[in-house]
Structure formats: C-alpha cells, structure tokens
Amino acid sequence: QIQLLESGPGLVKPSQTFSLTCTVSGGSITTNYHYWSWIRQPPGKGLEWMGAIADSGSTYYSPSLKSRTSISRDTSKNQFTLQLRSVTPEDTAVYYCARGLKDSDDLTMASLWYASWGQGTQVTVSS
Q: Most distant CA pair in the chain: distance in Å?
C-alpha cells in the first residue's frame, strides 16, 4: 500500500538550485529500518543512487554528489526532500524517490534494495 510521489520543477537553469519533494502515503517515513532514497537516471545512463534519509533522520550521500546535495524531511507531512545545488546540464535526469531497505543493520548504503518507487520526475537543466 505504500506509494511515493515526486514533485518539483521540470526545468532548471544552470548554476541554480532545485528541490524535489517525495510524498509518502500508506506508511510512515519514521518506520524502523527504512532509508528513504533519491535515485536518478540521466538519459542513456544507468541508475545513480544520490542519497537517503533514514527513519532516524540520519542522512547518507553519494560521495560524488555530497558537496551539492542535501536531503531533509518533514515528518508531519510524511515527506522527504532532495536539494541539488549548482546544477549543470549533466544533472538532467529522471529523478526517483524510493523506499530503501537493508538485509542487515550493519550493511552499508550499497546494500540497499528498494521495495517501492515513485513514478519518477524529469528534471532538465538548460538555459
């Protein structure tokens, strides 16, 4: 029953900042052992994990994006948000939010698997 829905701008100019919000229904983002993740797919490329926020509020980021990325949440709205700063055309992608899980508590973010996905939202960076 858990569903995720992304929202945010479809077009962003280079050097600017955009935010995407994922609204979760059917379950709480504070449920134990969940890592609410952002994943993107540039055109012609594979999926890239960007980061996650855990049920505790702890955040985790891909090293390649950490300097430009922030993930936050609003538990009262059952939402979590991706902020990506200083964007370039290479940030053009379909952005997904997803419900991430791990098989064991001591595993790293590389071990996440995704039980639920949003539909994805296109973000195009262009002047």
A: 44
